[in-house]
């Protein structure tokens, strides 16, 4: 069966995973920036269920650039969304910066995400009616940075991504590469310790894609930010500290 084929199984066949953890294991988990244990994700629709993740264990040290690669449908976006606390796994645990986010209340999790995670989406996700600077200011406002300070920090971030001269442009008047630079600047707003990016180069040509990843990795390394990037793009491998391959909801030893 290929990964693109949909597999349906009955609810009664779903094996409930048990998460057990020794003291040594717990220490290992707490020392990683990102650690997942036995992550399982089942999407349910009526009586049918689809197992998208079948038990993912991942350790990402602080400051590392980690790539998640694999064919379409292998579960990369699902895993990244769970690691970023956007989706709740059916089973298993995720520790970020030593804290078990799978045990947090939704209020605690929202606060944790706001303070610690910057997310970069495939389609940029910029507000179309806001200028480049305002798109970043909105993110800063959410983190409690307002007014002149937000303006100044947004201009500093735009300078870092080489777009200080485009501060007052609307997204529709910027190229794809420029929009993704703004998305990077926005993800870096407030200096989160973790950056998660889902196919950040998918909408860009290969040269722009490489430049964007180089920029993201450079900026991340300056602050020892941990970065998790989902990508199809094999050229990005050279920027990574770790590359993990996924297939059919599992981590595979061999590249696919
Ligand atoms: N909300 C959902 N409901 C049901 N199935 C889903 C949902 N989201 C993703 N899937 C399925 O889970 C599998 C993994 O999807 P995804 O994580 O998006 O993979 P990838 O990012 O590697 O392409 C796919 O077969 C996809 O169709
Ligand atoms: Mg995806």
Which properties best describe this structure?
256 residues, alpha/beta, binds magnesium ion, globular, single chain, 10 strands, four-stranded antiparallel beta sheet, six-stranded mixed beta sheet, 32% helix, 7 helices, disordered N terminus, binds adenosine-5'-diphosphate, Rossmann fold
Summarize the structure in words.
α4 (132-142) packs parallel to α6 (176-188). The strands form two sheets. The chain has a six-stranded mixed sheet with strand order 6-7-8-3-9-10, with helices on both faces. The chain has 256 residues and is α/β, with parallel strands linked by helices. The model is unreliable at 1-20 (pLDDT under 50). The protein has helices spanning 23-30, 76-83, 106-116, 132-142, 147-160, 176-188, 206-222, and strands at 34-45, 48-60, 65-69, 91-96, 99-100, 117-120, 194-198, 226-230, 242-247, 250-252. The chain has a single domain, classed as Rossmann fold (3-Layer(aba) Sandwich). Bound molecules: adenosine-5'-diphosphate (ADP) and magnesium ion.
Short characterization:
The chain has 256 residues and is an alpha/beta fold.
Give the topology string: H per helix, E per strand.
HEEEHEEHEHHHEHEEE
Largest sheet: 6 strands, mixed
User: Which structural class fits the helix and strand makeup?
Assistant: alpha/beta
Task: Give Rg in angstroms.
Answer: 19 Å
